[in-house]
Amino acid sequence: MLLKVSNLDVGYQEKQVVFQASLDVDAGEFVSLIGHNGAGKTTLLKSICGYLHASSGEVNYKGEVITNISPAINVRKGISFVHQEKSLFPKLSVLENLELAAYAIDKAENLKERLEGVYALFPILAERRKQMAQTLSGGQQKQLAIGMAILVQPDLLLLDEPSLGLSPNLVKELGKALKEIQEMGMAVLLVEQNVKMAIALSQRIYVMRTGQIILEETRDEMKRRDSLWDLF
Amino acid sequence: MGLFLQLLVRGLITGSLYALLGVSWGLIYNTTRTFHFAHGFVYAITAYVIVLAMNLTLPLGLSIAIGLAAATAAGCMLEYFIYLPMRRKSAAQLPIFLTSLGVMFAGQSALHLVFGPDTMPLQAFSEEIFIVGPVVFTNKDLVALIGASALIGLLFLFLRMTKAGMMIRAVSSNPEKAIFIGIDSRKIFILVFGIGSLLVGAAAFLATLDTPATPHIGLNAILMSFIVVFLGGVGSLPGAAIGGFMLGIVESLIILVLPTEYKIVVTFLILFIVILVKPEGLMGEKSS
Amino acid sequence: MEYLSHIVNLALFYVALTVSLNLILGYGGMASLSHAAFFCIGGYVSAIVTLQLSANFLVGVALAIAMTMIIGGVLAAPFIRVKEEYVLLFTLSFQMVVYHLMMSMDAITGGDSGIFGVPLPEILGWSPETPTQFLPLMAAVLVLVYWIAFKVTRSPFGRVLKGCREDDSAVSSLGKNVLRFKVTIFMVGTGVAAGVGALFAHYTQFINPSVGSLDASILIIAMVVLGGTANLMGSAVGAILLIIIPEILNFIPGASDLIVPLRGAIYGILLIVFMRFRPEGLIPEYFHLGKGEKKDGLTQKAKGSDETVTRKENSKDAQVPQCKVVLEVSGLSKAFGGLKAVDDFSISLERGKVTALVGPNGCGKTTAFNLITGFLRPDTGKILFNGRDITNFSAHRMPQSGLVRSWQDVRIFKEMTVLDNILIARQNQPGELLSQLFFMPWKVKQEEAQNLKEAYTHLKTVGLLEKQMELARDLSYAEQKLLAIARMLASEAWILLLDEPSSGVDPNWVDHFMKMIRNLALSGKTICLVEHNLEVVRGVSDTVYFMAGGRKISQGSFEEVMADPELGEIYFGV
User: Fold this and answer.
1) A203, B98, C150, C544: least CB-packed within 10 angstroms?
2) Which of B12, B67, B47, B36 is nearest to B217 (CA)?
3) Per the confidence metrics, is the pTM higher than 0.80?
């Protein structure tokens, strides 16, 4: 087991948002977490990587307890996170954004090859590498954000609603890219509003409602459902 | 025309010092959002350290080095022992500002208590006067102008060319993301306080070449620092640099039409008007 | 003896000055660095008026107050809109400008040396010639200042002010014009400072710029901070301590040369120590809550609240809706840059019905909400409330016309008591106007008693009556959401727009909220909600509007909408 989350409680000050959440992700597996807005998906994801403080429960990664350890440390252990929005440095160039992701954790060896790998996945980034990140279009910014995350070759990629604000065409492209990323051997934990895309990509799906994980199903079980409305 | 040229050159010289003050404070403010009023105290203490070292007949270079080391240490210590613990307790901007104000006033009073109210001139090297056409200036002016401009240039190069510089820019442009990619923002904050204080120390040295140190020199320095930053635009260091030069020149040229006493009034009026018309400053970005 | 009286007078001056700054800093939440400048302006105006026009000192003081209040208002109006640091920037700039003007305008201010021979105060032929004689006058002035400060802060006006300090938008969503309150308190604070400054000039018969320096402004801030922000008694303690400590230094032989820097060092160190270790000051704001004396007083009153409340038409603007369709929105559009966030959106809300806006993320629900509640201006479209056009009303006018919103992140006033959170929501309170507060106190009192009664009924409705004197921050999150609902009810609005009422609430509480929303509809309120938990939408709504891409795609009962496979395609993505 790559990641095992057990009975996590997370909240902000007096407000508890996630209640007793448990989930796991195997090495190389693609898992999605879906549910209505405000169900606590992003909060859960941010506490897994240590950004938000879990008041109880445990996050176990590669057999090591990493509950409430700063994301700055977890990224060195191989957990990369992609934010819903603002997942890059707007006033730095595309190339600087990518390089920085590697420098920040002192992972500069064969940087060139890894950059080529990212460019192969997202060719537009190579074209725009001198441009300031904030001048990119929404879809390109998303590609850059994911590029920064995979450049450091993590074992686990946490993605927070990457499809947000993208047109249907771009969502399709994004889906393809995510598939390729999984094929590179990274495990993915995806939080998505776009349920169709999440189901299409994942082996297993967790459903969250008002702070609790209410369901865990495989892709096939999920596909057999008549209506998805019951889950929201 | 002669007078105009002379004033323009004067303005450039003071402007370069304002610009250096502006970028030194702006670097700290843009990155950490700390309203670091005690920057003025760091300025004053550097001037005193250099003057005292020279009075002990230490060589100029060594005196400057000691002064700048003191400035850097003072800035880092303020961040580590005062601002960081307050930020950890998630203190709002106001308490942090008031603390900084306290440091500034306690600090300048301490200088007054220890060294007395008298002026302490810096005898770094003997003055030479140059006359170029209608313009008169000294070698000290030249050192100030070139020194300040060079330091500003070096800072920009550092921020653009080095890994540390890139990390500083990253933290000021998106602090949350910086943590996620593995940057320890606490270290960056201390680094930024160190560099900012080093630069303000340099500004103190360059200014003290011409104007002797007193316990109260810090106040004017910090005032000019943040006027320049807000004038040029929060978030934009080039804005601060340009704002500094502009302010220096305008302040100098204003003498053509108004008595000198009104210099500071005009300075603040310019700030008032700019902020009213363009709250984000000359080169700042509109916040959403 | 005279020396002692002088010190006492001096201390009283500073107490008054500190109280006036506390109004701005502690209650208004604005760090003004120019308080000494206002003090000094007051002194100069009165000195010049009495000397040049040989007017009575009362005329001088009155003119000083009036002029300074105008200056304060002009200064405050623009900077209050912008961020916190601009308040520092503006007041600091103002401080420096005033100081330098006083120093350099020799012809008017006497420059560095100031103005001598300012006449002594004279009231009906009586003039206090010695500090001891002056003492009763000073004491009376201080009592007056305290009376004003208490009147202003412990009133509906003060309540709104405390709200503004915490959350501007929440205050405007309750129908209050934030700018008015902030500018008013800034003017009151500067006015008091100017009055005290004028008196000071007459007392010392002399005024020069030294009392109006930045150091002096910071001294007053230190006094406020030391005593405790937003605690008026604390201000007295802070001011007296900081006046007396340096005076003691006078008695240490050889120290006299060092008094100025020593004072500075003491103020500085006190600021650091207090901000770092006891930011609430010597006497914290809610000192009295700990002692429980006020608590008892109010619970007493609460006992009388069982009597039936006669509903009074409390708002001028609000009308009881007569027609079935209470709110009619048509053709609403709003674009940000090139992007149409809301596009030709129409909705009608019926009395006693619950309408839900549903749609995928980014479909424009929240923007539509902000347009209807006046937090955004629509590009095109019309909003009719009860047949009346309210399209371009600003946010704070909506509740006055009977339409109020809640916030997804509750936005109750955490540093206020539960009861105050309810009371603040009442519309058009006479006590929110200083004119009524000072000249028609009986009206305010009457209204406040009525408000209390109403508040208790609403607290009872949501079951928070026992917690009325607790600070809202001590409530659980679900209780805070309940409080937010009670606050909407207290505004007596007919239309309630709920922004994600179930979000962040403990799963066990969700049913409770659903029941409450149904009950509100039954009692005749018109409800519109944005909600992502479809369980809740199914449970409470009569009509569902399905939105996507800023447009209304479909409308009907929950079951009808969910049965449409096309909507599923949109909601669950490609």
Assistant:
1) C150
2) B47
3) yes
